[in-house]
Write a structure and sequence with these properties.
Layout lengths: L1 H20 L15 H14 L11 H10 L6 H9 L3
């Protein structure tokens, strides 16, 4: 019984890091302050028009707003579309 536990732990400790090394690199996190003033100004009217319900006074969910803009992409301004494209979205 003790041998089985020790063997299991040894396998997990050797296989675990190897499995993690196989994962693709993750993109850097997006902070609420990402984008410069010009980029925020380009998308602000579209956010207010199509995603207003996601904007909160103290803290907004950047990923939800981005998803909303992507959903409404055919309707958003060309300036905001350029901002999204410049960030790989």
């Amino acid at each position: 019984m003790f041998r089985t536990c020790v063997l299991t732990i040894a396998v997990v400790l050797t296989v675990g890091p190897a499995a993690l090394a196989q994962l693709p690199p993750q993109p850097p996190p997006i902070s609420p302050s990402s984008g410069n003033d010009q980029e925020r100004a380009a998308c602000h009217p579209d956010v207010m028009r199509y995603c207003r319900q996601l904007v909160k006074e103290d803290e907004s969910d950047v990923f939800a707003i981005l998803s909303c803009l992507q959903t409404n992409r055919p309707k958003i301004s060309s300036a905001c579309q350029q901002v999204l494209a410049s960030h790989g979205e």
